[in-house]
Amino acid sequence: MYLFPFSKIKQGSDIVIYGAGNIGRQYAKQLELTGYCRVICVADRSKDSLSIDGVKVCHPDEIDYADADAVVIAIENKNVADQVKADLEDRGAGAIVWKIIPFEGADSFAHMKEYVSYSSDNSSVYSQKLTSTELSDLKKFLAPMKIHRFDKMNLIRVGGDADGGYVMHDDLCGKVAYSIGIGDEISWDKDMADRGYDLFMYDFTVDKLPFENDRFHFFKKGITGSRIDDPIFCTLDEAMEQNGHDGLLGMILKMDIEGGEWEFFEKVDDKLLQQFDQLVFEIHGLLRSDRWAYYGACLERLGRTHSLIHVHANNYSKYALIDGLRLADCMELTYVRNAGQEFEFDDSTLPRKTDRPNIAGLDETDLGRWNRLIDRINSKG
User: What is the model's pLDDT at position 111?
Assistant: First the structure.
């Protein structure tokens, strides 16, 4: 199944879906069920069907693209999608979106609307009783996931109002930030550049940035926790040495590398992390109970140098409802360096006012009194 790129399309837009195949049909069905935006028509050269879920299928030559706020390309093959994009540009189409998101959250379209609203149908991943080993491992994972606060903490949003923006402490007075994992969403990087930071940006999966900025320094490389005999990868300390940042304090680190963060957490040196005032991560794969103890050990390592001040559930991911606690498969974490601060546990309700849904128009995942829910699970025998 493929998820419609909700975060790339403004709610209420009039759009054209290009491609009447499997992906195009899935997009049309999701939009019918959610009512997120209106599909003017589906463009397809073969026109094997007259309509999809009541939406007319038209040959691309028959469409006036000026009537559409955006065209969403529903084709998996990037080379073909690039050809379609070039053709659409020649035809005068405005916004053109191509973002393929494989999705395993809903097992059928009949549950799509309930899924995006987070019904109990989807949240019962761990409705069965946890084994004693799973419960023990879950406690190890959740113990370092409690949030903290400190005197004069002031949380703001940095970046856009959807996926790619993050909640951070407002003390952003440094000059250098590392952004690991870029994709095509760099609103956080742009915001940080506007605040006076030079951005050192690493991603081996893209050839270039969506747009340029004098403060952007892009490297087509991946960051790993340990050295790999492949020139397309390097460790963070190697990157910092190459950029002349050995020993530089007051930096910011943002990382979203689709699961690769865990090996980084396991291997990174405490002394290196001390060079960063704030850490912002998106962590993945949290519903894998066989890895909970490992995750807990990795996060305990981060806690030696930094304290967790904010947690946000990425609202496109499924979650497990475990004794009232919603554990999303993908979550965003913000840390502040321990040095010079006195921390206490924070009893705040999550999400906060500064949070935004990763996919606009879909409900946030309510984490409630996060610390209290963790304490309740940790109190179980």
Answer: 37
Those residues whose C-beta lies under 8 Å from the C-beta of residue 330, and which sit 6 or more positions away, are: 282, 283, 284, 286, 313, 314, 316, 317
pLDDT digits (tens, 9 = 90+) for 165-207: 999 999 999 999 999 998 888 999 999 999 999 999 999 888 8
Mean pLDDT, rounded, for 81-110: 77
Give the CA radius of gyration of the chain: 22
**Same domain for 294 and 168?**
yes
Instruction: Output the domain CATH number for residue 95.
Output: 3.40.50.720
Structure confidence at residue 22 (pLDDT):
87
Name the burial class of residue 70, with classes exposed (0-12), middle (13-18) and buried (19+) by CB atoms within 10 angstroms of its CB: buried
What's the pLDDT at 120? 27
Residue type, 23: I
Report helix angle 132-142 to 292-302, nearest 10: 20
What's the pLDDT score for residue 45? Answer: 85
Q: Of the candidates 240, 295, 244, which has an alpha carbon nearest to the alpha carbon of residue 272?
A: 240
Would you say residue 1 lies in a domain? Answer: no
User: Do 43 and 190 fall into the same domain?
Assistant: no
Asked if 296 and 256 touch (Cβ cutoff 8 Å), the reply is no
Asked whether residue 91 falls in the same domain as residue 218, the answer is: no
**How many CB atoms within 10 Å of residue 173?**
10
Q: Which residue range is the domain that position 207 belongs to?
A: 125-378
Rounded Cα distance between 112 and 31, Å, is: 10
Answer yes or no: are the C-beta atoms of 308 and 345 closer than 8 Å. no
Nearest to 352 by CA among 319, 312, 314: 312
Residues 157 and 39 placed together within one structural domain of the fold: no
> pLDDT tens for residues 65-82?
988 999 999 999 988 999
243 located within any domain: yes
- Count of beta carbons in the 10 Å neighbourhood of residue 87: 12
Of 68, 91, 116, the last residue of a domain is 116
Q: What is the pLDDT of residues 333-373, one digit of tens each?
A: 999 999 989 999 999 999 999 999 998 878 889 999 999 99
Do 40 and 185 fall within a single domain?
no
Instruction: Write down the pTM of the prediction.
Output: 0.69
Q: Tell whether 71 and 110 lie within a shared domain.
A: yes
